[in-house]
């Protein structure tokens, strides 16, 4: 699967946030998007997933050559896209397992329930999640780190083809960052998942093999390069020009 | 004073005076239509009622300890005593009227109560009771619960209406929880479009006692509920949950007042509503922390979801704190349409918008329903609420399928 973003312009409440951004992510590739706060990274991620309050004013988003601009979020999910939220919504009263079971049904996962449960158990053990988390309401009362793990667990079960991970490392301790990275890598090996990882920190990248690092500033990609770009950012910040 | 005079006086109280002096509450007020003066107890036929009750028992799979209708009553076992007002002693009638005369609504219901339901839980007993109330005319009942020390009682009440013309269900609960006793009171109203509901509850908790009161309202053209609960014993605890689902032009006026009058007492009011079409709801939570209530903890939270631009919720949390040192008192209120971010989150996982909306509303309802510890009532409440959400139909229960619904599964029609 190929996700292509072509000269994308996105507005939020009448203000242009993404100002002509192009990017291509193929299945099996790891791309990293870095940039200062307010540069438009999360807006881009949500626009790719079809957030109803974001308006694409120019450009296009293509999946395998077909425009998905007119698609609703659920249709984009069915195309194989997945967004790991920076701040996942808490929904008290909605059992996590029930939600995940409903979501996997929508994604066309018809595995028998017993197998589905076994998969959830296996994945949650790999993520070293507390056993009671999956029995609770969706994200309700979870710590920041727990929410991130639950997002990765959803991704593992829903098996998207391209995933956008919006700060998968925020709120995680050192060991958890490594654990999440290992789980993401494993999933990528298994499913040839294409990844666009949005992050502020280089630590998670110690455990990953990004093909390209993209630096986003003021709604545009201003630099692209390999892992060496990270060292530059660590030294000089985003004012590397 | 004769019995007829009692009724007349009670009616006059209600008709002449608002039951509260709060100016805001007067402005946001639902008046419940009252039965005509000429016929205090409107007798209705019981044709079809037997079949209806059998059907409800089968569908809910509940074992009822008593069945109360405006036309007949049945105490299945000896746990619950039912006394018809005409057979009640004058002292009981007078005492009740006198004691509740500060509340005009209570006086009204007292004056009209056709039946007294008496439940006495002995000391250190542990009991569960279920009552089915079937309104086919103007059902008016007073439920008196006395809990002995260290006793535990779960009282679950299911109300259904089958009236064919305009009618009012009026219920008054008087609960007295003795030292270290616990009561869970669950009331689920599933009325039809001809019915108005007037629900009143007065409860007091002695030292270490706990009252967990849960009220759920759906159906019915107008509902007014007033609960006054006194956390009067040291370290006593009162939790009140009120929830309404409304559609069409239904109106709800839900009042809950909790009084922290003793040290280290706690009181918690959670009110919620989901409203569609042009329905409306007033959520009026009031908490008072009195002098001497050191260490008291009082909370009011009012939440609502509006499914239609014509629906409205007036959330009016109110607190009065006479003792300001070492007490906790918080209140909050919020109403909104379905949260767009939650909707985006769920749809991004592949759920279509309609299903995602239902899940959000169902989860919201489940939060309140989960306050009941009675698993059977939780399933019935969720099933009925989901049915309303799908069909907006009022009236008796069309179907109950407990399987899977508790987990928030959206039932397929």
Commentary on this structure:
The complex is a heterodimer of chains A (241) and B (413). With 241 residues, chain A is of the alpha/beta class. Helices cover 34% and strands 30% of the residues of chain A. Chain A has a single domain (2-26, 37-191, 208-223), classed as Rossmann fold (3-Layer(aba) Sandwich), CATH 3.40.50.300. Chain A has seven helices and twelve strands. In chain A, the strands form three sheets. A six-stranded mixed beta sheet of chain A has the order 6-9-10-3-11-12, sandwiched between helices. Chain A has a four-stranded antiparallel beta sheet with strand order 2-1-4-5, with helices on one face. In chain A, a hairpin with a 2-residue loop joins strand 4 and strand 5 (66-67). The longest helix of chain A is centred in the last third of the chain and has 18 residues, at 174-191. Chain B has 413 residues and is of the alpha/beta class. Chain B has two domains: 3-337, no CATH class; 338-413, no CATH class. In chain B, 22% of the residues lie in helices and 39% in strands. Chain B contains eight helices and 20 strands. In chain B, the strands form two sheets. Chain B has a ten-stranded mixed beta sheet, with helices on one face. In chain B, strand 1 (66-69) and strand 2 (73-75) form a beta hairpin. In chain B, helix 1 runs antiparallel to helix 5 (104-112). The radius of gyration of chain B is 20 Å and the shape is globular. At the A-B interface, helix 2, strand 7, helix 3 and strand 8 of A face helix 6 and helix 7 of B.
């Amino acid at each position: 699967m190929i996700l292509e973003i072509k000269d994308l312009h996105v507005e939020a409440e009448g203000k242009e946030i993404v100002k002509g951004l192009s990017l291509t992510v193929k299945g099996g590739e790891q791309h990293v998007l870095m940039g200062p706060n307010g540069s438009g990274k999360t807006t881009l991620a949500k626009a790719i997933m079809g957030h109803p309050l974001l308006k694409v004013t120019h450009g296009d988003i293509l999946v395998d050559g077909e425009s998905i601009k007119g698609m609703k979020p659920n249709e984009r999910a069915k195309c194989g896209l997945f967004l790991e939220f920076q701040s996942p919504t808490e929904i008290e009263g909605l059992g996590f397992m029930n939600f995940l079971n409903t979501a996997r049904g929508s994604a066309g996962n018809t595995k028998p329930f017993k197998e589905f449960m076994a998969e959830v158990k296996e994945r949650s053990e790999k993520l070293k999640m507390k056993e009671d988390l999956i029995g609770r309401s969706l994200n309700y009362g979870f710590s920041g780190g727990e929410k991130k793990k639950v997002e990765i667990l959803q991704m593992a079960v829903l098996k998207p083809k391209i995933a956008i991970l919006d700060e998968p490392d925020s709120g995680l301790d050192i060991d958890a960052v490594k654990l999440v990275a290992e789980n993401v890598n494993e999933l990528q090996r298994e499913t040839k998942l294409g990844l666009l990882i949005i992050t502020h920190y280089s630590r998670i990248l110690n455990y990953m093999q990004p093909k390209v690092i993209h630096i986003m500033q003021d709604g545009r990609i201003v630099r692209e390069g390999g892992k060496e770009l990270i060292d530059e950012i660590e030294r000089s910040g985003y004012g590397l020009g | 004073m004769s019995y007829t005079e009692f009724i007349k006086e009670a009616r006059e109280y209600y008709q002449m005076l608002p039951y509260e002096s709060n100016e805001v509450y007067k402005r946001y007020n639902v008046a419940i239509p009252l039965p005509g003066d000429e016929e205090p107890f409107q007798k209705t036929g019981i044709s079809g009622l037997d079949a209806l009750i059998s059907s409800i028992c089968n569908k809910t799979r509940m074992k009822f300890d008593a069945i109360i209708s405006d036309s007949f009553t049945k105490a299945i076992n000896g746990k619950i005593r039912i006394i018809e007002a005409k057979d009640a002693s004058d002292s009981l009638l007078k005492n009740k009227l006198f004691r509740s005369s500060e509340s005009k609504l209570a006086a009204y219901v007292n004056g009209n109560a056709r039946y007294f339901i008496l439940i006495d839980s002995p000391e250190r007993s542990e009991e569960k009771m279920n009552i089915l109330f079937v309104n086919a005319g103007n059902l008016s009942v007073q439920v008196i619960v006395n809990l002995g020390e260290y006793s535990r009682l779960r009282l679950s009440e299911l109300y259904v209406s089958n009236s064919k013309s305009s009618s009012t269900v009026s219920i008054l609960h008087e609960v007295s929880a003795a030292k270290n006793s616990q009561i869970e009171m669950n009331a689920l109203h599933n009325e039809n479009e001809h019915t108005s509901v007037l629900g009143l509850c007065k409860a007091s908790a002695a030292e270490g006692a706990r009252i967990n009161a849960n009220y759920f309202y759906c159906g019915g053209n107008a509902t007014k509920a007033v609960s006054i609960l006194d956390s009067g014993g040291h370290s006593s605890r009162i939790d009140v949950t009120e929830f309404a689902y409304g559609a069409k032009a239904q109106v709800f006026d839900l009042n809950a007042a909790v009084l922290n009058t003793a040290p280290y007492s706690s009181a918690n009011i959670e009110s919620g509503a989901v409203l569609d079409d042009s329905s409306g709801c007033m959520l009026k939570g009031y908490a008072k922390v009195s002098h001497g209530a050191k260490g008291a903890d009082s909370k009011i939270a009012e939440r609502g979801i509006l499914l239609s631009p014509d629906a409205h919720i007036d959330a009016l949390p109110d607190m009065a704190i006479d003792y300001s040192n070492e007490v906790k008192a918080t209140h909050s209120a919020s109403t909104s349409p379905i949260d767009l971010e939650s909707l985006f989150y769920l749809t991004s996982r592949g759920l279509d918008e309609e299903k995602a909306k239902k899940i959000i509303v169902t989860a919201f309802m489940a939060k309140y329903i989960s306050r009941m510890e009675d698993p059977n009532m939780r399933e019935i409440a969720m099933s009925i609420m989901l049915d309303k959400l799908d069909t907006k139909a009022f009236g008796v229960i069309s179907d109950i399928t407990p399987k899977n619904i508790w987990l928030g599964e959206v039932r397929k029609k």
